[in-house]
Every structure is written in C-alpha cells, then in structure tokens.
Amino acid sequence: MILALQAIGSAVLTSAFLWPLTGLHAAELTGRVVSIADGDTLTVLVEGRQQYKIRLAGIDAPERRQAFGERARQHLSELAFGQTVQVEWNKADRYGRVIGKVRVSGRDVNLDMVGAGMAWHYKAYATEQSPRDQNTYGAAESAARRAKRGLWRDADPLAPWEFRRLR
Predict the structure, then answer these.
(1) Residue 63 bears catalytic tag
(2) Where is the TNase-like domain (predicted)?
C-alpha cells in the first residue's frame, strides 16, 4: 500500500514520530524541488505549501567544502531544481530528513548522480535498497570509475564519510 505523504500531515513529520520507518510499506510524495542543499539533499514543496528535506537514498555525495562538492550540488540542481519529483521513501534520518529515491519524469536521480561520477554508491546503507538497486547503483559507480567521470578524475578521491570522520 502506498501512502500519500500529504495525507500524513505535517504533524507527523515535525514530531517525534520521525523514527526510522523501515519495515513499513513505502510511502510516496510528489512536489516541486525548491532548493538544493548539496549533492545528496534537496527540498521538495508539496501541495499545501509543506516543505520536506529529502536525503537521496543509496548515495553519498562529496561535502560542499570537499573536492567536487560544489560540482555535485550543481549537477543535482541541473537534474532536479524546479522540477516536479516523485519521492519513494520508507524512513527518515536522525535529522528529520526523508530518505528516498527521487524520480524526475520516471528517471532515478539518485542513480544519475552515481553514474555521472558525482556521488558514491553508499554501500553502508545498501541493505536498505532493493537487490536490483544495489546491483544497478554498484554497476553505475564501477562504470563511472572506469570512465573517470566526475570525482573519479581524481587519483584518490576522498569518500565523504571519511571526510566527515576526519573533521
């Protein structure tokens, strides 16, 4: 059963109810992208003027102050800013962001970020992806590495989780 996020209401997403929703059926929301925070986080405005911060599931993009961080943000903006998106999700993170797969006209934006070499396939959370997405995202990262696209142009790119750990 797919729930309409709008029907859940803002009280749900702004309350302590934001624990991980793993195990529940996926919910879906539709809205317009109104801002891009970085290469893996955007804000969606849904009907009723509700805004939801979305963390792209299955990927981790460079931090903004990191090599390729601003380029990753720009690429996500090119793919999604101002566009109507569908977000499939079943969990929120500790910061209150919805963790989801973002689609523009049916295209998987998360996968596009990995394939363009603008993000890593975030293997630490791969078990939260379908087996198909695990394989597809992994293959997209491998292809981007081989082709030296985006951040893979660097001889030894620093993964964002390592960048955050070192800070």
Answers:
(1) yes
(2) 27-154
